[in-house]
Write a structure and sequence with these properties.
With about 400 residues, the chain is an all-alpha fold. The protein has helices spanning about 25-50, 60-90, 95-115, 120-145, 150-170, 180-215, 220-240, 245-260, 275-300, 305-330, 340-365, 370-395.
Length: about 400
């Protein structure tokens, strides 16, 4: 496959100060996200064994939930949107030293959350400053060019920031009378990221697949796309107001049906030989699976609610972000959209990580959850290590075709 940009042609500008790593938003953030993903699961597994304590600010479980969504996923989303918004508007978002400063702010938030001895307001302030900086950076060119269709991305970042704020307010004791606020806020963060994936998948997965396979019947269905997004917004709303009950379960069931139905004509069956395509379709499938598991968890105690969460986080968010980082980095560095064996192996590993994390406890029983968690974490880590081996040089070097970006 020939190299293709993410969405449109990038603005032609010289490489800014800071070198290739500062030339486009995807470069530092995809690199940092992959490094963080490769490291966070080993730390989490060690914390479960009592060997490390990442609980200077959050408790260990709160840290894990927060950092998978508002750490890892937020970094990938930032890299994607800072790059895509420049393409949508033909105006740059952040490049050069401002881009590196934004990446440094993200990294400072990660360190501050585990660094003991800091006043508690410091990690909260650093972490909460990041998403607004990204939102402003993409909103300025979108508003300047009246690209109103993509203001939904600013809304998603704002909603995601709201969930992050709620987690911090809970830790700081500002809202001490809201039971379960921290877990609810983390769930809202997962919902926002899932809704964002629903939007982007409908826009680009059928297009990518049709362009690569030349199958004329591949298409999106606008009404089903709208229904799927509306259902996800309803899931988000009920999880803000009253998560875990009958209403939440049946809305999740409706969203599972809607998100699955829209993908019927996306041509997943034609992608088996193209890793950069099948990883997108396979990981999208985890969205209706995760939503359906929310229904199952409400219907029977034999299905822990955490399995639904991990279907969405490990399966959908982890796998889809890995696939999109691989594709975007190739297209925006002037390389052919072809995944080598190592990258294809990384896709298989992250898919297996999700299958083990979700399917292991179902098949073997809740008593074996710890084993499933360790196996899944090892597979996840191996996937991102392979990604880094291949993509760290690509992200840190100039474009292969000599163009800026």
């Amino acid at each position: 496959m020939s190299p293709l940009p993410l969405l449109g042609a990038p603005p032609a500008r010289p490489i800014p100060a800071g070198g290739p790593l500062a030339a486009k938003g995807f470069r530092p953030f995809f690199l940092l996200a992959a490094l963080f993903a490769a490291g966070i699961l080993p730390v989490w597994l060690l914390s479960l064994s009592g060997l490390v304590r990442p609980d200077a600010y959050f408790d260990a479980f709160g840290w894990h939930a927060h950092e998978m969504v508002f750490g890892y996923a937020a970094a990938v989303i930032a890299g994607f949107l800072l790059t895509a918004a420049a393409n949508w508007t033909s105006r740059e978002t952040l490049v050069g030293p401002p881009l590196l400063a934004c990446a440094a702010l993200w990294a400072a938030g990660r360190v501050a959350l585990v660094l003991p001895g800091l006043p508690r307001a410091v990690p909260a302030a650093l972490d909460l400053a990041f998403l607004p900086m990204v939102a402003v950076a993409i909103a300025r060119p979108i508003l300047a060019t009246k690209n109103h269709r993509n203001l939904v991305m600013v809304a998603a970042l704002t909603a995601m920031w709201g969930g992050n704020l709620a987690m911090h307010l809970d830790v700081l004791g500002v809202l001490p009378h809201v039971p379960g606020l921290r877990a609810r806020a983390a769930l809202v963060g997962v919902d926002v990221v899932t809704a964002l994936m629903v939007v982007m998948a409908g826009r680009i997965f059928p297009m990518f697949t049709k362009n690569a396979t030349r199958v004329a019947t591949i298409r999106s269905h606008p009404r089903l796309d709208a229904a799927a997004l509306a259902a996800m917004v309803a899931v988000l709303a009920v999880d803000v107001a009253a998560p875990g009950g009958r209403v939440a379960a049946w809305i999740a069931g409706a969203a599972a049906i809607a998100t699955a139905a829209r993908a019927v004509h996306w041509g997943a069956q034609y992608t088996a030989r193209v890793p950069l395509l099948w990883i997108l379709h396979v990981t999208y499938a985890w969205i209706p699976v995760g939503l359906a598991l929310r229904v199952a968890a409400w219907l029977t105690p034999a299905v822990p609610a955490s399995l639904a969460t991990h279907a969405l986080t490990v399966g959908a968010i982890g796998g889809m972000t890995l696939g999109m980082m691989a594709r975007v980095a190739l297209g925006h560095t002037g390389r052919a959209l072809e995944a080598g064996r190592a990258v294809a192996a990384a896709f298989v590993l992250v898919t297996l990580a999700a299958l083990v994390r979700v399917g292991g406890p179902l098949a073997l029983g809740a008593a074996h959850t710890r084993i499933a968690l360790h196996v899944s974490g090892t597979l996840w880590t191996a996937a991102f290590v392979l990604f880094l081996v291949v993509y760290a040089p690509i992200l840190a070097r100039p474009r292969a075709d000599g163009k800026p970006g």
